[in-house]
Write a structure and sequence with these properties.
Oligomer: single chain
Number of strands: 11
Order of helices and strands: HHEEEEEHEHEEEEEH
Largest sheet: 9 strands, antiparallel
Distance between the termini: 41 Å
């Protein structure tokens, strides 16, 4: 929530030798403050589930994507849209942003930057997964198969793992989930895309660069 900047104006006074009583400050009704505060709030919006499903049509979704267009690239065949602070939740967790990648007018990849960890939810939803560590510590933990722990929520990722990626591959799509913790900074990134996304993207990049 942004804080409103409210300036209380007082009449400009000329300084004189004689002492005068200080002017009374203008009183602003509390209702006015509340109205200004409310008007500066970020308007969070729930976007339809159909908008976020792979292979949906960019033209059909245009009315929802208004004001979220980031840019068009590679002969205008690739279009990116960024939705900041959506009201949608993902496994009951809030997202700071959702990025939609369209190729030739079809949604081919979605990327969520989340405010909390959903690794346990994904494991319970999709089952067996592949995991890769991004530093020596995480690689050693994975090599030692110190990956999963039991909790009252069910199976969860070993808490000591803090720089890794989970991956699920299906017939027509793949899911990647990246976790990175460095000090107080954390990153939870969920990506879902069509299975041949990299090939499609590379193809238009070469053609139009």
């Amino acid at each position: 929530m942004k804080k409103s900047n409210l300036f209380i104006l007082t009449p400009l006074l000329t300084i004189t030798i004689a002492c005068t009583a200080p002017p009374e400050k203008e009183m602003v009704p509390i209702e006015t403050l509340l109205i200004e505060e409310k008007s500066t709030e970020i308007k969070r919006r729930v976007f339809s589930d159909s908008l976020l499903q792979l292979n949906t049509n960019q033209v059909e979704d245009a009315f929802q994507l208004e004001n979220h267009h980031f840019g068009d690239f590679f002969c205008d065949r690739a279009s990116f849209y960024v939705i900041d602070e959506p009201a949608n939740t993902f496994y009951s967790k809030e997202a700071s942003s959702i990025t939609l990648f369209y190729i030739d007018g079809a949604l081919r990849q979605t990327k969520y930057l989340l405010k909390d960890d959903i690794s346990g939810d994904l494991i319970r939803s999709y089952g067996n997964f592949k995991i890769a560590g991004f530093d020596d510590k995480n690689k050693q933990l994975i090599k030692a198969r110190s990956i999963l722990k039991k909790s009252y929520h069910g199976v969860i990722i070993e808490p000591a793992l803090d720089n890794y990626e989970l991956r699920w591959v299906f017939n027509d799509r793949e899911i990647k989930y990246r976790v990175k913790r460095v000090g107080e900074e954390v990153e939870f990134k969920f990506v879902e895309r069509v299975k041949n996304f990299e090939k499609e993207f590379s193809s238009i990049e070469k053609m139009c660069s």
